[in-house]
Design goal:
Layout: E1 8-16, H1 18-26, E2 30-37, E3 40-50, E4 55-59, H2 64-67, E5 72-82, E6 87-99, H3 103-109, E7 124-143, E8 149-151
Antiparallel strand pairs: 1-7, 2-3, 2-5, 3-4, 4-7, 5-6, 6-7, 7-8
């Protein structure tokens, strides 16, 4: 009886340059805003878009985000995973949170595809102005005898 050799795998873990991070964020319509309120950490999901070099989303006047002070330090994280290929990417934006109050800017943002899933009126636009943008990707490849890397396929 022949014994099958288990294939070797290599995992690639790479840092992403900022330009690639912004391209990935532009494809995302969902992420999480991380904040500190009353000394406690919190994170809430938002439907969002990229506007220039910032992240924007809508909220209501009685929501947690609106209660944060103008210029509060926050982080925003978006990611994508492929459970079959055991790969994915993650982008982290650190910056400050501001309410958008300029009427012309609000009118401009209204054309973005930001559709909150949360119930109720979401008529306040918030912007995360970044100080730092980082990202990473992870992927698994199968090594074949000639050291070629093939996409990972889980045992089936």
């Amino acid at each position: 009886m022949d014994t099958l050799n288990e294939p070797e795998y290599v995992i690639s873990y790479d840092q992403l340059v900022e330009d690639v991070c912004w391209r990935l964020l532009a494809r995302s319509s969902f992420g999480r805003v991380v904040f500190c309120q009353d000394g406690e950490p919190g994170a809430l999901p938002v439907n969002c878009a990229v506007a220039g070099q910032s992240i924007v989303f809508r909220t209501s006047a009685d929501a947690t985000f609106f209660e944060l002070t103008h210029g509060s330090r926050v982080a925003f994280e978006a990611d994508h995973t492929d459970h079959v290929a055991e790969s994915g990417w993650s982008v982290l934006v650190r910056g400050t949170l501001h309410e958008v109050t300029d009427a012309a800017e609000i009118a401009s943002l209204a054309s973005l595809p930001v559709h909150p899933w949360a119930p109720g009126k979401r008529d306040r636009w918030m912007r995360i102005v970044p100080d730092n943008v980082t990202g990473r990707t992870i992927s698994r490849h199968r090594l074949v005898p000639d050291s070629t890397r093939l996409p990972y396929m889980p045992p089936g």
